[in-house]
Design brief:
The complex is a heterodimer of chains A (174) and B (216).
Chain A lengths: L1 H4 L3 H21 L7 H14 L10 H26 L6 H4 L6 H19 L3 H12 L4 H8 L3 H22 L1
Chain B lengths: L3 H13 L10 H23 L2 H9 L1 H24 L13 H13 L14 H26 L7 H22 L7 H27 L2
The chains are: A mainly alpha (174), B mainly alpha (216).
Amino acid sequence: MAAAQAGDQRAYTRVLNDSVALIRAVARRQGVAYDALDDVVQETLLTVHRVRHTFDPSRSYDAWLSAIAARRAIDILRSHGRREHREVHDEQAYDMHADRDDASAGAEREQDAQRLRKAIETLPPGQREAVEQLGLKEQTLAEAAERTGRNTGALKVNLHRALKTLRDRLHGES
Amino acid sequence: MSDPARHEALIDALGAELTPVRRLLPPWRRALGWLVVVAVIAAVLFARYGAGTMLHRWAAAPDLGTAAVGAVITAITGAIASFVLAVPGRATAWAWLPVPSALLWIGASGLGCLRAHIPGMPVMDLHGANHCLIFIIGFSVPLSGLMIWLLRRACPLRPVLTAVMVGLASAAASASLLEICHNFDATASDLLMHALAVALVIMTNAAMGGRLLSRA
């Protein structure tokens, strides 16, 4: 590590590679789960890189590394603890969740569309015209006005009334 | 599951961006740097107030002198403990280093309340005691700030414990500086203010300094 502090890349990669086993051992001793050991190794290596100037070559490298690894292990344990605390485990939720595209959902959508079509047919002629031109054919107000011979204000009022009627009817049914 | 490839990739990346670093000075040298700043402030206060009043108080009431010596030693040992604790791999037991001198400082100050007053020296009222509070906090803030700034270059793995040491050292240093220009006999209210100031400084450091140091 002393050579690495002076900028020796080969010594640095060698000492880091040799450190992995000790970091894992320290993390296991702290009680880190097996599948989280690699996270501790990565975090410790990053910290070692950031604070490599704090190593004193006259003292033990293993003690220095172990202290950093133990700290990062505790951090990982805490963050996992927090995540588990926040997330709710419900094993049945996946099975219970309705699929969006199954056969019954398709049939229900078809029924909804039919009900909507019927409701539109029973609207007064002016309102039906507004819904068909503006809502279904997606024409602009000007185009719809030209086609129906009504002014845009009347179309807007008719559309507004039609939507209110449809909303009342469909909600009243369900 | 072990993932050697992921570690190797990271190690290669870290190796590629390796630059030579300047090694951290030994903790005692870094502590000395901070103590020099305190000593400079003390020299300025001595130049302004002289040592006469302080020595007169100590001669008349040796417990005040003992308390002051305790405070000075606590500032020194607290600073050393802070800088040692900020280096990874050093024993937590270093936190005990300033404890005996802190006990001496607090114990001798407390005893000051029990003895007779120094003849001819004014007794402090609550208004004056407030000045002590402001003095201790006023000096502790920059001294703590300086030490935290110095410690951030190291790697305090126990940030809150380190910050408590910073608070103790700063408060002790401020109380020592106050001793130079403290032209009053000790009273219970005065000592209470000192204790309150020291407690405030330590708690503030533990709360804020810990957070500042944990990012280091």
